[in-house]
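Exercise 7.
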Amino acid sequence: MFNASLNTSSTSDAQHVLAAYGWDAGWEAEFAPYAAQGLLPGRVVRVDRGQCDVVTPDGLVRADTAFVTPHDPLRVVCTGDWAAVDPDGDPQFVRMCLPRRTAFVRSTSSTRSEGQILAANVDHAIIAVSLADELDLGRIERFLALAWESGAQPLVVLTKADLVPDATALSYLVEDVETTAPGVQVLPVSSALGEGVDVLSAVVGGGTSVLLGVSGAGKSTLANALLGEDVMDVQSTRDVDGKGRHTTTTRNLLVLPTGGVLIDTPGLRGVGLWDAETGVSQVFSEIEELAQQCRFHDCAHEMEPGCAVLAAIDAGALPERRLDSYRKLVRENQRIVAKTDARVRQEIRRDWKRKAAVGKAAMRAKRGGV
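Solution. The predicted structure, written as tokens, is:
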């Protein structure tokens, strides 16, 4: 998977080695202070229980992360990080990670509602959605919100397209997802037949991509198709519930033959938002634009007069499902942010009071003003 026998003493050769993993002039400038200390640059390709595999100009090394394991779960060493490695340590240690350009973060399923970083320094977020199952547009919207928030460019890949042999039906499915994902390319792909893989390779070539999706979405098969070889283990999907028995348990960074690198991830059971206000706004950009035309600037799009969003629903220009999903994700994101932001907690309380007052006014009107 990685060439661990790479050894070089020249700076140009060293930069050439790391270039395949995304090293550029910007990273070189960021690393300059650490180079002056005799540390080696490297990219984290795998993290496992306090240790990580880092590809450096001298090859692939196993390094300890004890020096950079903070209490903040969002600052732990992650696949995709650029690290400064002590070349003379025994064992070797990661001394520092460079500031991340982007970070894909979700909320954990724990009661502590902590954030969990899935991948760092990502240019493209490939959201794999299987056409073997009924489309879950709400789940796609969640993935998109996190992708936009991360700073990466999302891309929805509809896998197992060969299971929809009717071209018209496939076109309708693509259209449904495009409506759900404004500004995002939607690409049907059949890894089994090789259809669409070359287009996907061209889109993600030259950058870092993370492959995301639930178990059974065909991520490992898609990764193998992009890599041109069976690197990732693949097991059959269960007939009972359609879930894939995914053998990937860690996030791995892999070099693509057509350029760029791919971070494959295990199937995600939960896709909780984590401070994704900007991402939610991007996913539902048409609702945000309509909201600018509402009579009241704080319109909740529920029963207020002069609501442009509700008018669009009545006119058939906006699916009601989209508004329901928008409300749900906005509320969820507010709850997450409110745990650490007193201002947001106050805004939520004011909103509750406002809605209670509107409800009481409506009841009085129904009773004839009594």
